[in-house]
Design goal:
By secondary structure, the protein is mainly β. It has one domain (4-144). Helices cover 4% and strands 51% of the residues. It contains 1 helix and 9 strands, in the order βββββββαββ. The protein has one helix at 101-106; strands spanning 4-7, 18-24, 31-36, 49-56, 61-68, 71-78, 92-98, 112-124, 130-144. The strands form 2 sheets. Strands 1-6-5-4-2-3 form a 6-stranded antiparallel sheet, with no helix packed on it. It has a 3-stranded antiparallel sheet with strand order 7-8-9, with no helix packed on it.
Amino acid sequence: MNNITIISKLADIPDFQFTGYIWESDQTKPILLNNQTFDFSNVKLNPFIIEAYLFAKAQNQSIAIKHIDGQYLITNIDLSEIDLNNIPKDSFIKHFYLCDPAVEKQNNEFKYMKFLEYFNHEIDELCANLKVLKPAWAAFIGFSKEEWK
């Protein structure tokens, strides 16, 4: 499942309706998006985006932004081939993490961040050439008020 695309610059992020957050370097709380667009072409050199996790439900696209050593690492994970209401348990694990209190204070429906982790089935010579599961990627897929079951 090779569905990861690297996006070279912020302005190339698709103009989707996102749910997620964008945390800028000069802010004490993130910008929350709840099925909203964001104009990345207006982001300047400083302040910069420290981190962002965005999910476009209509397109099943998960975008992560990290600012590392003065550059952005932007990944887009295409989840369109996955039924998020019926996730196969043989290759995927659902994770949930408590949000930063600054997120939940802005929207009490956003208590947990939901991630979907995918594992490749690969032959491992250190395991008698048997197929093993190796972590491949994790995608942000929104918020929830309760633990994801």
